[in-house]
Protein: Metallo-beta-lactamase domain protein
Amino acid sequence: MLKPISPDSSIFYIGVDDTTIDLFENQYPVPHGVSYNAYAIRDEKTALLDTVDPRATEQWLEQAAEVLDGTAPDYLVISHMEPDHAGSIQALAERYPEMTLVGSAKALAMLPQFFRNLPRNPTLAVKEGDVLELGTHTLHFVMAPMVHWPEVMVSYESAEKVLFSADAFGKFGALCTDEPWTDEARRYFLNIVGKYGTPVQTLLKKAAKLDIQTICPLHGPVLTGDLAPYLHLYQTWSSYTPEEKGVLVAHASIHGNTAKAAAYLAEQLKALGEKVTVIDLCRCDMAEAVAQAFRYDRMVLAASSYDGGVFLPMEEFLLHLQYKAFQNRTVALVENGSWAPCAAKNMRAVLDTMKQITVLEPTVTIRSAVKPEDEEHLRALAEAVRQEA
Ligand SMILES: Cc1cc2nc3c(=O)[nH]c(=O)nc-3n(C[C@H](O)[C@H](O)[C@H](O)COP(=O)(O)O)c2cc1C
Ligand SMILES: [Fe+2]
Ligand SMILES: [Fe+2]
Structure:
């Protein structure tokens, strides 16, 4: 069944839902799957925009054939060479050897890296400001280097005012699961594109000059209607600005005492009126922990000491935050140790490598189990965290 992106549109959705994948990029749990989006523009010339992951090639080829209605596509526009979008290029090129492959010079240069026996389709390297006339539709190319990978470009179609935004504005979750956008878009953005805040800011500035009515990303739903909330969240996330006031309490506890301290602290914070999310780093999705850390303006890290260092789930969490350029937040520390507490020193060493992190003093040190005087110190820490709001 043909799926135009709006009732009278000549732009069609030909993407595929993947509900059987467990880990996206072999690391992010996707309990509701993911969609590999692809589009087709039917005009005097026909353009396909991106392909899909090799897991979905056959279904996508069938959908493309239905839109093409027995004709061959004139162009395949390649926004991004990552296999979740470019993985079916070879299959398409073999079917349509006359079709022109359109992409940035860097994207075209990557083609032989991924495909050894690509047919000799014509290619067209495009750069910032180049246009491709399709008839009544015109694609304007906007380079978006490092909005995930260096070869990325987005395309603006001026007749229907559609931005094909590549990985930007994407979301985890197959389209068949109709869930709210923000939570899974946040987890997607901050883990996948989060490190590249500055390039995303550059793209947002370019996008602000365009009259955009619809955003067609490579994952998740096509965005229509009032686009301001989506643009606002992207502005917030890419500038490393906290999305809201609140506290993530993240703990890593070997025998459970540090977890109890974290729960006690969380209760104190709630009693003071704070919005609080508690995450057990030993059994959570790390990507969700990262997303929650970016969401709030403050964070409490509570961890057991471990072999002269910090219990590894906490170390791993901090490493993830460091990789994703975590910055511009206030952090409080709680450590536990039975003979030579050293978790806080090790947590701080990683935090010190990050930009604009304020570590609240004093750190709370617990020896083995939480005692009344520890509760007193935790209450004082909750007050100090509250003062930073
Ligand atoms: C393998 C292992 C290594 C540990 N290393 C240290 C250490 O280097 N320094 C220390 O003070 N305590 C160390 N501990 C004790 C833990 O920090 C202890 O579990 C903690 O004080 C109690 O908090 P918990 O119940 O949250 O684990 C270690 C415990 C284990 C099981
Ligand atoms: Fe990507
Ligand atoms: Fe992607």
Q: What stands out?
A: Residues 82, 84-85, 167, 218-219 surround fe (ii) ion (ligand 3) (CB under 6 Å). DSSP finds twelve helices and 22 strands in the chain.
